[in-house]
Protein backbone atom coordinates (compact mmCIF):
# COMPACT_ATOMS: atom_id res chain seq x y z
CA UNK A 1 0.00 0.00 0.00
CA UNK A 2 1.16 3.54 -0.65
CA UNK A 3 1.62 5.86 2.29
CA UNK A 4 -0.65 8.91 2.17
CA UNK A 5 2.02 11.50 1.20
CA UNK A 6 3.32 9.17 -1.49
CA UNK A 7 -0.20 8.64 -2.82
CA UNK A 8 -0.77 12.37 -2.87
CA UNK A 9 2.45 12.95 -4.77
CA UNK A 10 1.53 10.20 -7.19
CA UNK A 11 -1.93 11.68 -7.85
CA UNK A 12 -0.38 15.10 -8.27
CA UNK A 13 2.06 13.85 -10.86
CA UNK A 14 -0.78 12.03 -12.65
CA UNK A 15 -2.78 15.22 -12.70
CA UNK A 16 0.22 17.10 -14.06
CA UNK A 17 0.64 14.58 -16.87
CA UNK A 18 -3.03 14.93 -17.63
CA UNK A 19 -3.35 18.68 -17.72
CA UNK A 20 -0.01 19.93 -18.95
CA UNK A 21 1.17 20.27 -22.49
CA UNK A 22 3.11 18.65 -24.11
CA UNK A 23 3.25 14.92 -23.66
CA UNK A 24 6.85 13.76 -23.44
CA UNK A 25 6.56 10.90 -25.88
CA UNK A 26 10.23 10.67 -26.85
CA UNK A 27 11.01 9.25 -30.28
CA UNK A 28 8.41 9.67 -33.02
CA UNK A 29 6.80 6.34 -33.70
CA UNK A 30 7.14 4.55 -37.02
CA UNK A 31 3.99 4.92 -39.11
CA UNK A 32 1.74 1.90 -39.47
CA UNK A 33 0.75 0.86 -43.00
CA UNK A 34 -2.78 2.12 -42.32
CA UNK A 35 -1.63 5.35 -40.63
CA UNK A 36 -3.22 7.31 -43.48
CA UNK A 37 -6.60 6.10 -42.24
CA UNK A 38 -5.92 7.63 -38.80
CA UNK A 39 -4.96 10.86 -40.50
CA UNK A 40 -8.08 10.82 -42.63
CA UNK A 41 -10.23 10.18 -39.57
CA UNK A 42 -8.54 13.04 -37.75
CA UNK A 43 -9.00 15.44 -40.64
CA UNK A 44 -12.63 14.38 -40.94
CA UNK A 45 -13.14 15.03 -37.20
CA UNK A 46 -11.77 18.51 -37.76
CA UNK A 47 -14.27 19.06 -40.59
CA UNK A 48 -17.07 18.13 -38.18
CA UNK A 49 -15.78 20.79 -35.79
CA UNK A 50 -15.64 23.37 -38.56
CA UNK A 51 -19.06 22.50 -39.97
CA UNK A 52 -20.76 22.86 -36.58
CA UNK A 53 -19.08 26.21 -36.00
CA UNK A 54 -20.02 27.47 -39.45
CA UNK A 55 -23.67 26.73 -38.74
CA UNK A 56 -23.90 27.90 -35.13
CA UNK A 57 -23.79 31.71 -35.30
CA UNK A 58 -25.89 32.11 -38.43
CA UNK A 59 -29.67 32.46 -38.85
CA UNK A 60 -31.44 29.55 -40.62
CA UNK A 61 -31.89 31.42 -43.88
CA UNK A 62 -28.09 31.79 -44.00
CA UNK A 63 -27.19 28.23 -43.13
CA UNK A 64 -29.14 27.23 -46.24
CA UNK A 65 -26.25 28.61 -48.23
CA UNK A 66 -24.12 25.75 -46.95
CA UNK A 67 -26.84 23.13 -46.87
CA UNK A 68 -28.24 23.67 -50.36
CA UNK A 69 -26.21 23.34 -53.54
CA UNK A 70 -24.17 26.03 -55.26
CA UNK A 71 -26.49 28.32 -57.20
CA UNK A 72 -29.64 27.30 -55.30
CA UNK A 73 -32.09 30.24 -55.23
CA UNK A 74 -29.43 32.26 -57.01
CA UNK A 75 -26.97 32.03 -54.15
CA UNK A 76 -23.45 31.86 -55.54
CA UNK A 77 -21.03 31.62 -52.67
CA UNK A 78 -17.43 30.46 -52.72
CA UNK A 79 -17.95 28.20 -49.68
CA UNK A 80 -20.77 26.34 -51.45
CA UNK A 81 -18.82 25.60 -54.62
CA UNK A 82 -18.51 21.86 -55.42
CA UNK A 83 -15.35 20.50 -53.87
CA UNK A 84 -14.76 23.62 -51.75
CA UNK A 85 -18.04 23.03 -49.91
CA UNK A 86 -16.67 19.88 -48.31
CA UNK A 87 -14.36 22.04 -46.21
CA UNK A 88 -17.21 24.14 -44.81
CA UNK A 89 -20.21 21.87 -44.62
CA UNK A 90 -18.48 18.50 -44.78
CA UNK A 91 -19.71 17.13 -41.45
CA UNK A 92 -21.97 14.44 -42.87
CA UNK A 93 -19.35 13.44 -45.41
CA UNK A 94 -16.91 13.17 -42.51
CA UNK A 95 -19.22 10.95 -40.46
CA UNK A 96 -19.76 8.65 -43.44
CA UNK A 97 -16.00 8.46 -43.81
CA UNK A 98 -15.61 7.55 -40.10
CA UNK A 99 -17.90 4.59 -40.59
CA UNK A 100 -16.10 3.28 -43.69
CA UNK A 101 -12.76 3.63 -41.89
CA UNK A 102 -14.19 1.81 -38.86
CA UNK A 103 -15.41 -1.06 -41.02
CA UNK A 104 -11.95 -1.25 -42.55
CA UNK A 105 -9.96 -1.06 -39.33
CA UNK A 106 -12.19 -3.38 -37.31
CA UNK A 107 -11.98 -6.09 -39.93
CA UNK A 108 -8.26 -5.82 -40.74
CA UNK A 109 -6.94 -8.35 -38.22
CA UNK A 110 -9.89 -10.80 -38.41
CA UNK A 111 -9.74 -10.77 -42.22
CA UNK A 112 -6.04 -11.55 -42.24
CA UNK A 113 -6.78 -14.54 -39.99
CA UNK A 114 -9.68 -15.62 -42.20
CA UNK A 115 -7.50 -15.37 -45.30
CA UNK A 116 -4.85 -17.43 -43.52
CA UNK A 117 -7.49 -20.01 -42.53
CA UNK A 118 -6.64 -19.65 -38.84
CA UNK A 119 -10.04 -20.33 -37.26
CA UNK A 120 -8.76 -20.71 -33.71
CA UNK A 121 -7.06 -17.35 -33.64
CA UNK A 122 -10.07 -15.78 -35.33
CA UNK A 123 -12.32 -16.96 -32.50
CA UNK A 124 -9.88 -15.51 -29.94
CA UNK A 125 -9.67 -12.26 -31.82
CA UNK A 126 -13.42 -11.77 -32.30
CA UNK A 127 -14.27 -12.65 -28.72
CA UNK A 128 -11.77 -10.13 -27.43
CA UNK A 129 -12.99 -7.49 -29.88
CA UNK A 130 -16.67 -7.95 -29.02
CA UNK A 131 -15.92 -8.03 -25.30
CA UNK A 132 -14.10 -4.69 -25.46
CA UNK A 133 -16.16 -2.74 -27.97
CA UNK A 134 -19.00 -1.43 -25.80
CA UNK A 135 -16.63 -0.35 -23.03
CA UNK A 136 -14.28 1.36 -25.45
CA UNK A 137 -17.06 3.41 -27.03
CA UNK A 138 -19.20 4.23 -24.01
CA UNK A 139 -16.70 4.91 -21.21
CA UNK A 140 -15.51 8.20 -22.79
CA UNK A 141 -19.09 9.17 -23.62
CA UNK A 142 -20.35 8.52 -20.10
CA UNK A 143 -17.44 10.31 -18.44
CA UNK A 144 -17.48 13.40 -20.64
CA UNK A 145 -21.23 13.95 -20.58
CA UNK A 146 -21.19 13.52 -16.80
CA UNK A 147 -18.45 16.14 -16.42
CA UNK A 148 -20.14 18.49 -18.83
CA UNK A 149 -23.48 18.17 -17.05
CA UNK A 150 -21.83 18.66 -13.66
CA UNK A 151 -19.84 21.69 -14.75
CA UNK A 152 -22.69 23.69 -16.15
CA UNK A 153 -24.86 22.77 -13.24
CA UNK A 154 -22.15 23.78 -10.75
CA UNK A 155 -21.31 27.08 -12.45
CA UNK A 156 -24.89 27.90 -13.41
CA UNK A 157 -23.96 28.30 -17.08
CA UNK A 158 -26.82 28.91 -19.44
CA UNK A 159 -26.77 26.62 -22.46
CA UNK A 160 -29.23 26.79 -25.31
CA UNK A 161 -31.30 23.64 -25.82
CA UNK A 162 -30.93 22.35 -22.28
CA UNK A 163 -33.35 22.83 -19.43
CA UNK A 164 -31.43 22.66 -16.15
CA UNK A 165 -33.07 20.55 -13.42
CA UNK A 166 -33.81 22.13 -10.06
CA UNK A 167 -31.19 20.23 -8.09
CA UNK A 168 -27.97 18.44 -8.89
CA UNK A 169 -29.59 15.17 -7.78
CA UNK A 170 -32.43 15.64 -10.27
CA UNK A 171 -29.87 16.54 -12.92
CA UNK A 172 -27.93 13.33 -12.32
CA UNK A 173 -31.14 11.32 -12.54
CA UNK A 174 -32.11 13.06 -15.78
CA UNK A 175 -28.66 12.38 -17.20
CA UNK A 176 -28.74 8.79 -16.01
CA UNK A 177 -32.11 7.97 -17.64
CA UNK A 178 -30.93 9.38 -20.94
CA UNK A 179 -27.50 7.82 -20.94
CA UNK A 180 -28.72 4.37 -19.99
CA UNK A 181 -31.19 4.34 -22.88
CA UNK A 182 -28.44 5.57 -25.14
CA UNK A 183 -26.17 2.68 -24.25
CA UNK A 184 -28.82 0.10 -25.13
CA UNK A 185 -28.81 -0.17 -28.87
CA UNK A 186 -31.84 -2.45 -29.04
CA UNK A 187 -34.03 0.17 -27.41
CA UNK A 188 -36.46 1.50 -29.97
CA UNK A 189 -38.66 3.59 -27.70
CA UNK A 190 -36.54 6.66 -26.98
CA UNK A 191 -34.99 9.54 -28.86
CA UNK A 192 -31.73 8.66 -30.61
CA UNK A 193 -29.68 11.48 -29.08
CA UNK A 194 -28.54 12.88 -25.78
CA UNK A 195 -29.57 16.39 -24.81
CA UNK A 196 -26.19 16.62 -23.05
CA UNK A 197 -24.32 16.24 -26.32
CA UNK A 198 -26.40 15.88 -29.48
CA UNK A 199 -23.45 15.16 -31.72
CA UNK A 200 -22.91 11.81 -30.05
CA UNK A 201 -25.80 10.19 -31.93
CA UNK A 202 -23.13 8.49 -33.99
CA UNK A 203 -21.71 6.48 -31.04
CA UNK A 204 -24.61 3.95 -30.84
CA UNK A 205 -24.47 3.81 -34.63
CA UNK A 206 -20.78 3.03 -34.38
CA UNK A 207 -21.56 0.24 -31.92
CA UNK A 208 -24.27 -1.21 -34.16
CA UNK A 209 -21.97 -1.06 -37.17
CA UNK A 210 -19.23 -2.82 -35.21
CA UNK A 211 -21.59 -5.65 -34.41
CA UNK A 212 -22.55 -5.92 -38.08
CA UNK A 213 -18.87 -6.25 -38.95
CA UNK A 214 -17.96 -8.80 -36.27
CA UNK A 215 -20.99 -10.97 -36.97
CA UNK A 216 -20.56 -10.79 -40.75
CA UNK A 217 -16.91 -11.76 -40.39
CA UNK A 218 -17.85 -14.70 -38.23
CA UNK A 219 -20.67 -15.72 -40.58
CA UNK A 220 -18.40 -15.64 -43.65
CA UNK A 221 -15.30 -16.96 -41.94
CA UNK A 222 -15.59 -20.49 -43.35
CA UNK A 223 -16.42 -19.42 -46.91
CA UNK A 224 -14.01 -19.65 -49.80
CA UNK A 225 -12.51 -16.38 -50.99
CA UNK A 226 -14.99 -15.86 -53.80
CA UNK A 227 -17.97 -16.88 -51.71
CA UNK A 228 -16.92 -14.48 -48.96
CA UNK A 229 -16.57 -11.60 -51.42
CA UNK A 230 -19.91 -12.41 -53.04
CA UNK A 231 -21.67 -12.65 -49.69
CA UNK A 232 -20.21 -9.30 -48.65
CA UNK A 233 -21.35 -7.69 -51.89
CA UNK A 234 -24.81 -9.18 -51.48
CA UNK A 235 -24.97 -7.86 -47.91
CA UNK A 236 -24.01 -4.42 -49.22
CA UNK A 237 -26.68 -4.58 -51.88
CA UNK A 238 -29.23 -5.55 -49.25
CA UNK A 239 -28.30 -2.62 -46.99
CA UNK A 240 -28.26 -0.14 -49.87
CA UNK A 241 -31.07 -1.14 -52.19
CA UNK A 242 -33.50 -3.34 -50.30
CA UNK A 243 -33.57 -1.83 -46.83
CA UNK A 244 -32.50 1.55 -45.50
CA UNK A 245 -29.31 0.26 -43.91
CA UNK A 246 -27.09 3.20 -44.75
CA UNK A 247 -24.70 2.93 -41.83
CA UNK A 248 -24.50 -0.86 -42.07
CA UNK A 249 -23.62 -0.35 -45.73
CA UNK A 250 -20.85 2.11 -44.83
CA UNK A 251 -19.29 -0.33 -42.36
CA UNK A 252 -19.66 -3.29 -44.70
CA UNK A 253 -18.04 -1.33 -47.52
CA UNK A 254 -15.03 -0.69 -45.29
CA UNK A 255 -14.80 -4.40 -44.65
CA UNK A 256 -14.96 -5.15 -48.38
CA UNK A 257 -12.25 -2.58 -49.17
CA UNK A 258 -10.06 -4.12 -46.50
CA UNK A 259 -10.58 -7.61 -47.89
CA UNK A 260 -9.69 -6.45 -51.40
CA UNK A 261 -6.60 -4.56 -50.20
CA UNK A 262 -5.31 -7.57 -48.33
CA UNK A 263 -5.96 -9.80 -51.34
CA UNK A 264 -4.25 -7.31 -53.64
CA UNK A 265 -1.18 -7.29 -51.37
CA UNK A 266 -0.94 -11.05 -51.87
CA UNK A 267 -1.75 -10.86 -55.56
CA UNK A 268 -4.96 -12.81 -55.04
CA UNK A 269 -7.52 -10.36 -56.37
CA UNK A 270 -10.36 -11.75 -58.50
CA UNK A 271 -9.11 -11.72 -62.08
CA UNK A 272 -11.45 -9.04 -63.45
CA UNK A 273 -10.07 -6.55 -60.92
CA UNK A 274 -6.53 -7.54 -61.80
CA UNK A 275 -7.10 -6.61 -65.41
CA UNK A 276 -7.71 -3.01 -64.34
CA UNK A 277 -4.31 -2.74 -62.62
CA UNK A 278 -2.51 -0.84 -65.44
CA UNK A 279 -5.11 1.95 -65.30
CA UNK A 280 -5.13 2.20 -61.54
CA UNK A 281 -3.89 5.75 -61.09
CA UNK A 282 -6.13 7.35 -63.67
CA UNK A 283 -9.13 5.42 -62.39
CA UNK A 284 -8.57 6.49 -58.80
CA UNK A 285 -8.10 10.16 -59.71
CA UNK A 286 -11.50 10.03 -61.37
CA UNK A 287 -13.03 8.26 -58.40
CA UNK A 288 -11.61 10.92 -56.08
CA UNK A 289 -13.20 13.71 -58.11
CA UNK A 290 -16.53 11.87 -58.12
CA UNK A 291 -16.18 11.39 -54.37
CA UNK A 292 -15.56 15.07 -53.69
CA UNK A 293 -18.53 16.02 -55.85
CA UNK A 294 -20.95 13.57 -54.25
CA UNK A 295 -19.64 14.46 -50.78
CA UNK A 296 -21.14 17.90 -51.31
CA UNK A 297 -24.69 16.58 -51.62
CA UNK A 298 -27.16 19.24 -50.49
CA UNK A 299 -28.40 18.16 -47.08
CA UNK A 300 -31.26 20.52 -46.40
CA UNK A 301 -34.12 18.17 -45.48
CA UNK A 302 -34.90 14.73 -46.79
CA UNK A 303 -37.12 15.53 -49.79
CA UNK A 304 -35.63 14.09 -52.97
CA UNK A 305 -37.64 16.59 -55.06
CA UNK A 306 -35.75 19.36 -53.38
CA UNK A 307 -32.47 17.69 -54.30
CA UNK A 308 -33.61 17.54 -57.92
CA UNK A 309 -34.04 21.32 -57.90
CA UNK A 310 -30.36 21.81 -57.11
CA UNK A 311 -28.14 22.54 -60.06
CA UNK A 312 -26.07 19.46 -60.94
CA UNK A 313 -28.26 17.05 -59.01
CA UNK A 314 -31.33 16.56 -61.19
CA UNK A 315 -30.22 13.36 -62.93
CA UNK A 316 -28.38 12.12 -59.89
CA UNK A 317 -31.59 12.38 -57.89
CA UNK A 318 -33.00 9.51 -59.97
CA UNK A 319 -30.34 7.19 -58.56
CA UNK A 320 -31.72 7.23 -55.02
CA UNK A 321 -32.91 3.74 -54.07
CA UNK A 322 -36.56 3.49 -53.09
CA UNK A 323 -35.63 2.17 -49.65
CA UNK A 324 -33.73 5.27 -48.51
CA UNK A 325 -35.55 7.74 -46.31
CA UNK A 326 -32.79 10.32 -46.00
CA UNK A 327 -31.32 10.51 -49.48
CA UNK A 328 -28.07 12.15 -48.43
CA UNK A 329 -26.64 8.91 -47.00
CA UNK A 330 -26.96 7.21 -50.35
CA UNK A 331 -24.73 9.79 -52.08
CA UNK A 332 -22.47 10.03 -49.07
CA UNK A 333 -22.00 6.27 -49.14
CA UNK A 334 -20.49 6.55 -52.60
CA UNK A 335 -18.51 9.62 -51.62
CA UNK A 336 -16.99 8.06 -48.52
CA UNK A 337 -16.27 4.67 -50.09
CA UNK A 338 -14.57 6.24 -53.10
CA UNK A 339 -12.56 8.54 -50.84
CA UNK A 340 -11.28 5.74 -48.61
CA UNK A 341 -10.56 3.59 -51.68
CA UNK A 342 -8.66 6.25 -53.61
CA UNK A 343 -6.66 7.84 -50.76
CA UNK A 344 -3.94 5.16 -50.52
CA UNK A 345 -3.61 5.06 -54.31
CA UNK A 346 -2.94 8.76 -54.80
CA UNK A 347 0.48 9.28 -53.29
CA UNK A 348 0.33 13.00 -52.41
CA UNK A 349 -3.04 12.52 -50.75
CA UNK A 350 -1.80 9.57 -48.74
CA UNK A 351 1.30 11.53 -47.71
CA UNK A 352 -0.86 14.45 -46.60
CA UNK A 353 -2.82 12.21 -44.23
CA UNK A 354 0.46 10.80 -42.94
CA UNK A 355 1.83 14.22 -41.95
CA UNK A 356 2.29 14.75 -38.23
CA UNK A 357 -0.52 17.34 -38.30
CA UNK A 358 -3.06 14.80 -39.56
CA UNK A 359 -1.63 12.07 -37.33
CA UNK A 360 -2.10 14.35 -34.35
CA UNK A 361 -5.68 15.06 -35.41
CA UNK A 362 -6.14 11.31 -35.71
CA UNK A 363 -4.86 10.71 -32.19
CA UNK A 364 -7.30 13.17 -30.65
CA UNK A 365 -10.15 12.63 -33.12
CA UNK A 366 -12.51 10.78 -30.79
CA UNK A 367 -11.98 13.32 -28.02
CA UNK A 368 -12.30 16.23 -30.41
CA UNK A 369 -15.63 14.77 -31.43
CA UNK A 370 -16.68 14.44 -27.78
CA UNK A 371 -15.70 17.95 -26.65
CA UNK A 372 -16.26 20.25 -29.61
CA UNK A 373 -20.00 20.57 -29.01
CA UNK A 374 -19.81 21.43 -25.29
CA UNK A 375 -17.05 23.99 -25.96
CA UNK A 376 -19.13 25.52 -28.75
CA UNK A 377 -22.30 25.73 -26.64
CA UNK A 378 -20.59 27.24 -23.61
CA UNK A 379 -17.60 29.33 -24.66
CA UNK A 380 -18.33 29.50 -28.38
CA UNK A 381 -21.86 30.80 -27.97
CA UNK A 382 -20.61 33.56 -25.68
CA UNK A 383 -17.69 34.58 -27.89
CA UNK A 384 -19.83 34.71 -31.02
CA UNK A 385 -22.35 36.83 -29.12
CA UNK A 386 -19.56 39.12 -27.98
CA UNK A 387 -18.31 39.84 -31.48
CA UNK A 388 -21.80 40.62 -32.76
CA UNK A 389 -22.81 37.18 -34.01
CA UNK A 390 -25.43 36.32 -31.38
CA UNK A 391 -27.23 33.24 -32.65
CA UNK A 392 -30.71 34.49 -31.79
CA UNK A 393 -33.09 36.10 -29.35
CA UNK A 394 -32.33 33.55 -26.62
CA UNK A 395 -28.76 34.76 -26.40
CA UNK A 396 -29.92 38.34 -26.01
CA UNK A 397 -32.11 37.27 -23.07
CA UNK A 398 -29.87 34.76 -21.28
CA UNK A 399 -26.33 35.93 -21.86
CA UNK A 400 -27.08 39.61 -22.30
CA UNK A 401 -23.80 40.58 -20.66
CA UNK A 402 -21.91 39.08 -23.57
CA UNK A 403 -23.91 40.35 -26.50
CA UNK A 404 -22.07 42.86 -28.66
CA UNK A 405 -19.41 43.80 -26.12
CA UNK A 406 -16.72 43.63 -28.78
CA UNK A 407 -18.38 43.92 -32.19
CA UNK A 408 -16.20 43.02 -35.15
CA UNK A 409 -16.80 43.72 -38.85
CA UNK A 410 -18.40 41.14 -41.13
CA UNK A 411 -15.85 41.76 -43.86
CA UNK A 412 -14.66 38.82 -45.88
CA UNK A 413 -16.43 36.15 -47.91
CA UNK A 414 -19.36 34.29 -46.39
CA UNK A 415 -18.07 31.61 -44.04
CA UNK A 416 -14.74 33.37 -43.53
CA UNK A 417 -15.80 36.73 -42.13
CA UNK A 418 -13.46 38.51 -39.73
CA UNK A 419 -16.04 38.39 -36.94
CA UNK A 420 -16.46 34.66 -37.41
CA UNK A 421 -12.75 33.86 -37.61
CA UNK A 422 -11.43 35.93 -34.70
CA UNK A 423 -13.21 33.90 -31.95
CA UNK A 424 -11.31 30.88 -33.24
CA UNK A 425 -8.08 32.37 -31.93
CA UNK A 426 -9.50 31.33 -28.57
CA UNK A 427 -11.83 28.51 -29.58
CA UNK A 428 -9.29 26.41 -31.45
CA UNK A 429 -6.68 26.24 -28.67
CA UNK A 430 -9.33 25.70 -25.99
CA UNK A 431 -11.05 22.93 -27.95
CA UNK A 432 -7.78 21.18 -28.72
CA UNK A 433 -6.61 21.52 -25.15
CA UNK A 434 -9.84 19.91 -23.92
CA UNK A 435 -9.50 17.20 -26.57
CA UNK A 436 -5.95 16.48 -25.43
CA UNK A 437 -7.00 16.20 -21.79
CA UNK A 438 -9.94 13.94 -22.67
CA UNK A 439 -7.65 11.80 -24.82
CA UNK A 440 -5.33 11.23 -21.87
CA UNK A 441 -7.99 10.99 -19.18
CA UNK A 442 -10.68 8.90 -20.91
CA UNK A 443 -9.89 7.91 -24.47
CA UNK A 444 -6.60 6.09 -23.97
CA UNK A 445 -7.70 4.44 -20.70
CA UNK A 446 -10.91 3.28 -22.39
CA UNK A 447 -8.72 1.29 -24.78
CA UNK A 448 -6.43 -0.11 -22.09
CA UNK A 449 -8.94 -0.87 -19.38
CA UNK A 450 -11.11 -3.28 -21.45
CA UNK A 451 -7.94 -5.06 -22.59
CA UNK A 452 -6.89 -5.50 -18.99
CA UNK A 453 -10.37 -6.58 -17.96
CA UNK A 454 -10.62 -9.09 -20.77
CA UNK A 455 -7.28 -10.63 -19.78
CA UNK A 456 -8.56 -10.90 -16.21
CA UNK A 457 -11.58 -12.90 -17.32
CA UNK A 458 -9.45 -15.54 -19.04
CA UNK A 459 -8.46 -18.65 -17.18
CA UNK A 460 -4.69 -18.99 -17.07
CA UNK A 461 -2.60 -19.84 -18.99
CA UNK A 462 -4.56 -18.89 -22.11
CA UNK A 463 -2.68 -16.46 -24.33
CA UNK A 464 -4.83 -14.20 -26.39
CA UNK A 465 -3.35 -12.30 -29.30
CA UNK A 466 -4.24 -8.67 -29.79
C1 LIG B 1 -33.01 36.15 -42.70
O1 LIG B 1 -33.42 36.13 -41.34
C2 LIG B 1 -33.14 37.32 -40.65
C3 LIG B 1 -33.57 37.14 -39.20
O2 LIG B 1 -33.32 35.86 -38.74
C4 LIG B 1 -33.89 38.47 -41.28
O3 LIG B 1 -33.56 39.70 -40.62
C5 LIG B 1 -33.50 38.58 -42.74
O4 LIG B 1 -34.28 39.56 -43.39
C6 LIG B 1 -33.71 37.26 -43.47
N1 LIG B 1 -33.20 37.36 -44.80
C7 LIG B 1 -33.86 36.89 -45.85
C8 LIG B 1 -33.19 37.08 -47.20
O5 LIG B 1 -34.90 36.30 -45.76
C1 LIG C 1 -35.95 5.21 -22.26
O1 LIG C 1 -36.53 4.11 -22.96
C2 LIG C 1 -37.82 3.75 -22.52
C3 LIG C 1 -38.24 2.48 -23.21
O2 LIG C 1 -38.14 2.57 -24.60
C4 LIG C 1 -38.77 4.92 -22.77
O3 LIG C 1 -40.07 4.59 -22.33
C5 LIG C 1 -38.25 6.13 -22.01
O4 LIG C 1 -39.06 7.25 -22.28
C6 LIG C 1 -36.83 6.44 -22.40
N1 LIG C 1 -36.31 7.51 -21.57
C7 LIG C 1 -35.70 8.57 -22.04
C8 LIG C 1 -35.23 9.58 -21.03
O5 LIG C 1 -35.51 8.74 -23.23
From TrEMBL:
Q: Which UniProt keywords apply?
A: Acyltransferase, Membrane, Signal, Transferase, Transmembrane, Transmembrane helix
Gene Ontology terms, MF aspect:
acyltransferase activity, transferring groups other than amino-acyl groups
Tell me where the transmembrane regions lie: 87-106, 137-159, 198-220, 227-247, 329-348
Signal peptide location in the record?
1-26
Query: Pfam families attached here?
Result: Acyl_transf_3 (PF01757)
Highest taxon listed in the record's lineage = Eukaryota
- Tell me yes or no: is Membrane among this UniProt entry's keywords: yes
Q: Which part of the chain is the Acyltransferase domain?
A: 35-386
Protein name as catalogued: Acyltransferase family-domain-containing protein
Give the source species.
Answer: Bombardia bombarda
Amino acid sequence: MQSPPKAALWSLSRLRCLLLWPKSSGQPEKLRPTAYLDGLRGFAAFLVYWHHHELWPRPPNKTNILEEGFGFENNHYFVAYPGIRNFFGGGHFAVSTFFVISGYVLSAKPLSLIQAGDQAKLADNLSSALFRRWLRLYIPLICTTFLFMTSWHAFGLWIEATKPQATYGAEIWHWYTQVKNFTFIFNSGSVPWLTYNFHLWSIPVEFKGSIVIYTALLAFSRCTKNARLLCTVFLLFYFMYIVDGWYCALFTAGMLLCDLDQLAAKDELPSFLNRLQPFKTIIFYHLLVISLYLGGVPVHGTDINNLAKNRGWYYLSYLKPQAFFDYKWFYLWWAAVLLVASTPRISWLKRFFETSFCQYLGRVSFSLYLVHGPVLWTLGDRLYSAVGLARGQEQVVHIAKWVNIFPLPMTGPFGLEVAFLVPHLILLPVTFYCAEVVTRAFDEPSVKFPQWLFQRTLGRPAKIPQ
